[in-house]
Write a structure and sequence with these properties.
- By secondary structure, the chain is α+β, with helices and mostly antiparallel strands.
- It has one domain.
- Helices cover 39% and strands 19% of the residues.
- The chain is built from 3 helices and 3 strands.
- Strands 1-2-3 form a 3-stranded antiparallel β-sheet, with helices on one face.
- It is elongated, with a radius of gyration of 17 Å.
């Protein structure tokens, strides 16, 4: 159910007026899990196999602060590229177009 403030699905305004995207660092696990994460990160980087994601990309509704999208951002280069693409789409698409393209948390 949408509240009146969230009823921007028919709007022709850019999604960037209603949604914002940011990178949020992932919490690093402690203990053995933290050690495994660090080893996997270093091995993946050294072997160019990719590494565990360093952050999540979060898209939130500016009027409420509610999260509408959360995605693994990948390594630092992937995270920057993905964030730039999402921000470009927020500027060029309506909210309904953006959510249709990227999906959302229901």
């Amino acid at each position: 159910m949408h509240s009146h403030g969230d009823d921007d699905s028919a709007s022709t305004e850019p999604a960037s007026l209603h949604l914002t995207a940011e990178l949020r660092p992932r919490e690093r696990p402690g203990g053995i899990r933290g050690l495994v994460h660090t080893v996997a990160y270093l091995a993946g980087t050294a072997l160019s196999l990719g590494s565990p994601s360093v952050a999540d990309i979060i898209v939130v509704r500016t009027s409420t602060g509610n999260e509408v999208l959360r995605s693994s951002a990948g390594d630092l280069v992937e995270a920057d590229t993905l964030l730039q693409q999402i921000r470009r789409d927020l500027d060029e698409m309506t909210v309904s177009e953006f959510l249709g393209e990227w999906g959302h948390i229901s």
